[in-house]
Amino acid sequence: MKNKITALVLAALVTISTAFATEFTQGRQLQSANDFSVLTSRERVGIENRILTERLEQLLPQLMAETQLDMWLVINREYSEDPVYFTLVPQPTFAARRTTMLVFYRKADGSVELLSVNRYPFGAPYTSAWSGGDLTEQWQALAKVITERNPKRIGINVSADWAVADGLTKAMHQLLLDVLPTDYASRLVSAEPLVVRWMEQRTASELELYPHIVSLARAVIAEAFSTKVITPGVTSTEDVAWYIRQRFEALGLPIWFMPDVNSQRPGDDCKADSPFCGKSRVIHRGDVLHTDVGICYLKLCTDTQEMAYVLKADEQDAPAGLIKALATGNQWQDNLTRQFKTGRTGNEILAATIKESKKQGMISSTYTHPLGFVGHAPGPTIGMWDNQGPSSEGGNWPLYANTAYAIEGNIKQQVPEWNGQYVQIKLEQSAYFDGKQVIYLAGRQTKWHLVR
Q1: Run of H or E including 46
Q2: Contact at 8 Å (CB) between 339 and 352?
Q3: N or C: which end of the chain has fewer CB within 10 A?
Q4: Residue pLDDT, tens place only, 268-288
Q5: Does a structural domain hold residue 63?
Q6: Could you give the CA distance from residue 64 to residue 198 in angstroms, rounded to a whole number?
Q7: Residue 292: which H helix or E strand, with range?
Q8: Alpha-carbon 205 to chain mean position
């Protein structure tokens, strides 16, 4: 019965997200986030844990084989959790209580044994290899679990390059070495490739949910960029930013950064080489508005930037120069997403995008990053706002199928109606790469939000 209810809830979410993704793709704006159903904390647990079990039982064996690890250890303490820890444990879990040890062992048949060595057992999908209150006994139990299985390559979370793969503290590392036989030290290797792949890889179930999650973010933006929130000459950009934050809080949707709202207008000092254009101030008619918003729901995070125009009293649409500028922003997005090819590195995708955009006479900047369990997820780094050249960390990471990205960057274009002044179009939309093409999870902005 429980599985049937979970399936029905999931089916409802997919139906909703598909409908609203179509609305956005066709250029229509949602009027209110009230159009969406948001699950309660209790309702979310069943879906999150079902997807976790699928990932552990179906995805993890593939990734451990791919990265050639026989065993993977995740060892952490309460209030010093490994960054990957909460992606591996069932909900509701609030901490790595006392000392919590997770052991993943790849068996001869290719399946992975899921073991916990901790005082408070999790239950399914983990099997408790030990539980108790004595810390010395716990470490000895971990050593026994490891030596009985005799793995050749044991992944531990230490990394010089990826923060999410560097969760094993120095003290925990030393305690591990102390309890293992001496010859096991040479078997310990960095689990960095596995951690990055685990964090970036999306499953079919997650990709079914993701459009709904992104639609929630986009709906709140549409609501914030309307007369429901903005009164020209009265409302400030900071007011709108706080409205967005409080709206998500009211919906029970955690944000992973404070929303940003800024404005551009004729007379601003926006040049072709300005890194960013836009100020915090009271909003007036004729202003261009921009927001940057990120939420997390059902363990998946979004990152969205959209643009609005505040109509003057005698206007029915944005000036033609602004409409053309937004179209150029969409063209830049197309230049970028056409470069997504399996196996290409982030640096290669960036270089190809810059080359194509320059050929078209575009002033653009590309700084696209993966999305997933966190907003700035590991995977291919495709440029940075302060570095339009090769990146040393994620820049050399290759592109894999079924991974999600924030297609992020900006273009600058002169606006005739602003006496040739530049406007900066800052866009960011959540999307995924299916191995052949980039698909926007809930459409993308192709028309201005208009504040009447």
Answers
A1: helix 41-54
A2: yes
A3: N
A4: 999 999 999 999 999 999 999
A5: no
A6: 9
A7: strand 288-293
A8: 16
Residues 434, 410 contacting (CB under 8 angstroms): no
Instruction: Report the SS3 class of residue 285.
Output: coil
DSSP string, 73-110: EEEEETTB--TTGGGTSPSS--S--SEEEEEEEE-TTS
Q: What is the mean pLDDT of the chain?
A: 93
How many domains in the chain? 2
Are 210 and 183 within one domain?
no
Residue in the block written with tokens 């960011």: 428
Q: Rounded to whole angstroms, how far apart are CA atoms 353 and 409?
A: 11
Nearest Cα residue to 264 out of 218, 224, 319: 319
Burial profile 184-198: b = 16 or more Cβ within 10 angstroms, e = fewer: beebbbbbbbbbbbb
Q: Is the pTM of this model over 0.85?
A: yes
CB 443 within 8 A of CB 211: no
What is the rounded distance in angstroms from the CA atom of residue 76 to the CA atom of residue 27? 47
Assign residue 207 the CATH number of its domain: 3.90.230.10
- Angle (nearest 5°) at CA 324 between 323 and 326: 65
Query: In this model, does residue 21 exceed pLDDT 80?
Result: no
Does 299 lie in the same domain as 380?
A: yes
Neighbour-count burial for 413-434, b at 16+ CB within 10 Å, e otherwise: bbbeebeebbbbbbbbbbbbbe
Q: Which 3 state secondary structure label does DSSP give 435?
A: coil
Q: Which domain holds residue 240?
A: 2-42+203-451
